[in-house]
Amino acid sequence: xxxxxxxLTREKETLLITLYAKARESLLPESILKDRHxxxxxxxxxxxFSRLRMRRDEMIGLALRAHTLxxxxxxxxxxxxxxxxxxxxCGLDTRVQRVDPPPGIDxxxxxYPEVIALRRSLYPARPGCTLVGSPVTDPExxxxxxxxRPTLVVAEGLFLxxxxxxxxxxxxxxxxxxxxxxxVFDSYNRLGLTWVxxxxxxxxxxxxxxxxxRSPQALEGQVPGLRLRTERGGYESDDSRQRARYSWPAQAAxxxxxxxRPLGGMTQLLRxxx
Length: 274
Ligand SMILES: C[S@@+](CC[C@H](N)C(=O)[O-])C[C@H]1O[C@@H](n2cnc3c(N)ncnc32)[C@H](O)[C@@H]1O
Known about the structure:
Elements: E1 4-5, H1 10-13, H2 15-25, H3 36-43, E2 45-46, H4 56-79, E3 83-88, H5 95-99, E4 105-111, H6 113-122, E5 129-133, H7 139-143, E6 151-155, H8 164-177, E7 181-187, H9 190-197, H10 200-205, H11 216-222, E8 227-233, H12 240-243, H13 248-259, H14 261-264, E9 268-273
Parallel strand pairs: 1-2, 3-4, 3-6, 4-5, 6-7
Antiparallel strand pairs: 7-9, 8-9
Helix pairs in contact: 2-3, 2-4
């Protein structure tokens, strides 16, 4: 088997953290994600994943986060079978395989050119799925996406790395260009961003975290047309069996986050419509 050598650093290297979490969670009993494509990709990447020293709770938390975003993407697609999906900062995430959209969906995977090149070498091409190698904040790639269809933007582990001005400009372009749609992503308040910046795995990549959100409502005032539909804890699950998979200290932390507002805002999953 041909192994892919990795020369990614900073924000780009963080994709290996989320990929590895999803791959490892898929091997755990009661896996929620069952992401065999991620597990196969990890097996083909020449990178010392053991240096991440990833904890089981982290695998479960990142898998549950991905699962919630998958669910929102599936709901959007079910309601809009002729639509566009923009998967921003896709990294090596296999959402398109997990969600398996029908032929009416035009799916775009967007990330830096080096990341897209790696994606191309690891995963087979898929009808209806277009790879776009560009910084997400460069307006050129978005200008080339056909307007006129409902459009879902899904971004996991991305927005925290963007400068606020560039992110707001991107979201304003989305809501102005497409007739309707949704934007779903993970967010962090100031406390949460500090917590992420000190996470040993993120620190080891040298990635710089930039964007925090005061409250989900604040974004409505900054991006015309954006309306909050759902907010929930970043690593939550509605399924008590899934929550019980966490260690007791992690369960205690989630319990506190549900009850104490600034703690709850540390990391959230947000779903807006426009
Ligand atoms: C934590 S990883 C998440 C990857 C993927 N969404 C997942 O959940 O596995 C962050 C990703 O955002 C991408 N990224 C960060 N800043 C970006 C930018 N300005 N333009 C395009 N991609 C960016 C990185 O290259 C990386 O793939």
